[in-house]
UPF0149 family protein (Halomonas salifodinae), 190 residues
Amino acid sequence: MSLINDRLDFSTVADLFLLHNSLQSPAFLDGRLAAALALHDLSAEAWLEELCLALGVEQPRDPESAEQFLAWRRQALEALSAAGLDYAPLLPDELFSLAEQARGLKEWTQGFLEVLAEVDADKRQAWSDNLKEALADLEILAGMEAELEESSENENDLFALAEHARMAAMLLYTEQHPGRPQVEQPPKEH
């Protein structure tokens, strides 16, 4: 398994999809995963079921594939719930063209928003203004032009947009899971 800093990367998951005869982008499903974990603690079984449905298979092709799919879920959940706030969407990295990276971010955003579309209006109304604003920005991001020219300016812009998506996912998680992650320690009284 190709791990960078002990994390599954985009290429590894894309290769796993190819083993299942799917050319689907892992970014879209990672967006769905992040939103589902934030909203309702998507179980391992439900995640495997959703993945298999998306890949058009009845079950993972072998135990190793199933374990990698579950490791992907664990990685996302651990990052979303960690005090280090180090969650990162599973997106194409610098080995891919800027246009491919932009398409990956757009697909991640579309997957994330697809899950949020299922949330009822009362629950949405209870969300903070910051979260509502971040999600409104993601709506715009989902419709962005993905055919970017290679330039340092476009690269910087894409990085900022990916950071915005990352922060929106963490904000959604923290609002749905008060106290997790524990990012601010209350002062200790003596």
Notes: Residues 1-5, 183-190 have pLDDT under 50 and may be disordered. The first strand starts at residue 3 and ends at 4. The radius of gyration is 17 Å.
